[in-house]
Each structure stands twice: as structure tokens, then as C-alpha cells.
Design the sequence.
């Protein structure tokens, strides 16, 4: 971090260039050159172009990918699994087309509003983004990338306050929308976080994006004990229990979840950005994987409740 605690800025002598040498990329991302080379050679992550003499040159898109990789690693995803996740992200970005420019523009405006602690400006941006985007895009492409960046960069003066400001604002807006959507549905689902593996905002956003006209989703508190979920489900009688996590379940957690299933009177499903990485380890178990992206999760949840999706 630089003295102001912001992300390192690109040198003025390089800012007009499209490509950056490995030493500059290391300075901008905090990842040393040895690690960058290892990611490329061993795992196929971030393939830079080369000069005639063989020196690596990285694009701005490469630098963004390196920051995404750091985010996945911080969430506990093995580096060997990151390539497939990154490839899916690139595919989705390619489908987005020209919308990407608008999303990046909104992200920049959001950062400026957050830095100024401008509640009114942030509120106007929130309404503007909602009017022009789908529910999934509002969070996955615009607000949550900024939230994640601020959460990962709290080493400098003022950054923790900026993240808390945006986090509080988004929790309030998402909670308000959940309350508006709180009407009787034909099917009900409980959404609970795996202990210590997500923030409240991530759970609230997932509750909002997972719901539909026929399925109502109720989030449980982030401190919900795993061992008491059978009791909660017995009393609330949901059609399914969805556990949310950004980290692939360990062998021990998988055993605990398998024991939990025995005591439940409803199906158990997993959702979250790293859940798809764990699908192979859960194959054949009574636990189904919903995935991470809003539309995919909603489709799989509907299919599962209709008996059309196997565990």
C-alpha cells in the first residue's frame, strides 16, 4: 500500500502503455515475480505476452485477474482450482459485451461516493443501477466487486471506514428489499451461513437473488450454530435448507454435514462461489450443489424442489 492506503497507482511513465513489466505488476498487486511465474507455469494462470527477448508483459486485464486470484486464495480456494473458476468468469464477461463498460463506470462512481461518505449520492447510484440492470448484475457486476476490493484493502488509513460505510449502506438497502419481498410463497427455503465463512451482506444478497415468485427465502443470523439447524428446521418446516459458503467444505465439515442430513426433515443444499469446486467430493452424497451465480442457483433450486435435480 502507498502512504494514503490506496491501491498502488501506475507510474506516470507507464500509464499510457497497454503492457507492464513483471516488476511493475508485482508492485501493483503485491505478488512477487517468483509467484507470478509459478502461477503461469504450473497452473496456466495469467498468460502474459512476451517481448522479442522473452520478457513478460502484462495487460491491465492480467492485473485485474491477478487481483481476482488473490481474492479466491484468501477465501480458501486451492490455487489448482482457480483456473476453472477464472475461465467461467471470463466467459460471463464475454457474454456481457458492451455492458461491461457501464458496470465499470458505475463502479468508479460508487468508489467516489464511498470516498466522500456521500449517502445521498450512493443512494442515487443504487437506484440508477437497479433501474438499468438485472438483480444479478446489480450485485455481481457492480456493487459487490467494489465491496470485495474495499474489504481486501483495509491496510491504509480510512479504508476500513470506507468499507464499513459501503457495507452498512448495502445491508440496509438489501434488507429493505427483502422486507418488501416478504410475502407468502408456495415454497419456503431457509438460508444459513456455514460458521465463520461469510459476511452478513453476502448472506442477505444471496437471499435476495435466490428467491423467486414461487420460492421465498429466509436468511438466518450469521452466528447460527450448525448443530442446531435440525431444531430450527423442525420448527420452521422449510421445503429445503441451503447452506452458504465461499470456501470448499473440508473433509471434516463434509462429515458434519452428512450427519446433519440424517437429522433433517428437509433436503440440504450448498450455495456459494466455491461450492462448485467441491462438487466432485460431494458426488453421491445426499447434499446437492446449487452453484454461485444467481440465475444458476435459482434454476437449480427450482429443479431440485420439483424433483428434477439429483444430488
Sequence:
Amino acid at each position: 500500500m502507498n502512504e494514503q492506503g490506496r491501491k498502488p497507482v501506475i507510474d506516470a511513465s507507464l500509464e499510457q502503455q497497454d503492457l507492464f513489466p513483471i516488476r511493475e505488476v508485482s508492485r501493483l498487486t503485491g505478488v512477487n515475480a517468483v509467484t507470478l511465474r509459478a502461477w503461469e507455469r504450473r497452473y496456466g494462470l495469467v498468460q502474459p505476452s512476451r517481448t522479442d527477448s522473452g520478457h513478460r508483459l502484462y495487460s491491465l486485464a492480467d492485473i485485474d485477474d491477478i487481483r481476482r486470484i488473490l481474492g479466491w486464495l484468501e477465501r480458501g480456494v486451492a490455487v489448482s482450482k482457480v483456473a476453472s473458476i477464472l475461465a467461467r468468469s471470463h466467459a460471463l464477461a464475454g457474454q456481457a459485451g458492451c455492458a461491461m463498460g457501464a458496470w465499470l463506470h458505475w463502479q468508479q462512481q460508487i468508489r467516489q461516493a464511498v470516498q466522500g461518505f456521500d449517502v445521498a449520492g450512493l443512494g442515487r447510484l443504487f437506484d440508477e443501477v437497479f433501474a438499468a440492470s438485472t438483480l444479478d448484475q446489480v450485485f455481481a457486476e457492480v456493487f459487490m466487486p467494489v465491496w470485495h476490493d474495499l474489504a481486501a484493502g483495509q491496510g491504509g488509513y480510512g479504508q476500513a471506514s470506507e468499507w464499513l460505510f459501503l457495507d452498512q449502506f448495502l445491508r440496509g438497502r438489501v434488507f429493505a428489499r427483502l422486507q418488501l419481498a416478504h410475502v407468502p410463497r408456495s415454497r419456503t427455503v431457509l438460508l444459513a451461513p456455514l460458521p465463520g465463512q461469510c459476511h452478513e451482506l453476502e448472506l442477505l444478497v444471496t437471499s435476495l437473488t435466490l428467491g423467486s415468485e414461487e420460492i421465498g427465502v429466509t436468511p438466518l443470523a450469521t452466528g447460527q450454530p450448525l448443530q442446531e439447524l435440525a431444531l430450527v428446521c423442525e420448527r420452521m418446516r422449510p421445503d429445503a435448507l441451503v447452506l452458504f459458503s465461499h470456501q470448499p467444505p473440508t473433509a471434516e465439515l463434509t462429515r458434519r454435514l452428512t450427519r446433519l442430513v440424517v437429522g433433517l426433515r428437509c433436503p440440504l443444499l450448498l450455495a456459494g462461489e466455491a461450492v462448485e469446486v467441491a462438487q466432485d467430493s460431494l458426488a453421491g452424497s445426499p447434499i446437492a450443489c446449487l452453484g454461485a451465480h444467481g440465475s444458476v442457483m435459482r434454476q437449480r433450486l427450482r429443479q431440485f424442489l420439483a424433483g428434477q435435480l439429483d444430488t
Summary: Strands lie at 19-21, 49-50, 56-59, 187-193, 215-219, 240-244, 268-271, 287-291.
